[in-house]
């Protein structure tokens, strides 16, 4: 059986990515991160998703959030709300976490060598996303090159592959793929700034993209949003 490390945040995209890896007969090792993110509820979701999708092991790695302090997701910066589609698709927002995917993939690479996995899956998306530079295809391609010239496994000929199966999919297409794979949407959490009781705000970029994707796919989103976003 092929072995793969799957980066699992607990959100829709990473959960769908884990489901894809499982559907392709990979034995999966789910990797999540506690980096002081304000939406730490996602870690609870990640644990449930890893169990639901049969990950062989789920590891939560802790990273000191001081290195991410300038981000709205890990520092004292307000999460932007109610931005238009045009605003979401323009520039790099304050929710960008400096070098996050580089750091996360580096951890995944180390674990891949440790467990003998030749594959790393990441739920990066370059279509319906908030402009993050480390979610682009060229970044993934260059990281794969780095992985194969900077590791013992790579130098000895055990080529490692980076898989980003959602990279060119719209959010609606991701929802449709998740439906095809029987993903339990109720286990996922996407909100950047959830209410204390766990409800999604419905207004941050992540919530807006998620809501848009479900609406365009014609699929009901089972998670709880703030009252004004709940459809009777």
Note down, in words, how this protein is organized.
Helices cover 36% and strands 12% of the residues. With 232 residues, the protein is an alpha/beta fold. The protein has one domain (2-229): 3-Layer(aba) Sandwich (Rossmann fold). The chain has a five-stranded parallel β-sheet with strand order 3-2-1-4-5, sandwiched between helices. 44% of the residues are buried.
Specify the biggest β-sheet: 5 strands, parallel
Structurally, the number of domains stands at: 1
Mean pLDDT: 88
Q: Strands across the major sheet, in which order?
A: 3-2-1-4-5
- β-strand percent reads 5-15%
Instruction: Choose one word for the global shape.
Output: globular
* Number of strand segments: 5
Fold-level CATH name: Rossmann fold
What is the element string, with H for helices and E for strands?
A: EHEHEHHEHHEHH
Report the helical percentage: 25-40%
- Output the structural class: alpha/beta
Keywords:
5-stranded parallel sheet; globular; Rossmann fold; alpha/beta; 232 residues
What's this model, at a glance?
By secondary structure, this protein is of the alpha/beta class.
Describe the protein's topology:
Elements: E1 2-7, H1 12-23, E2 26-34, H2 41-52, E3 57-62, H3 85-88, H4 100-115, E4 119-121, H5 137-149, H6 152-155, E5 161-163, H7 171-180, H8 205-217
Helix pairs in contact: 1-7, 7-8
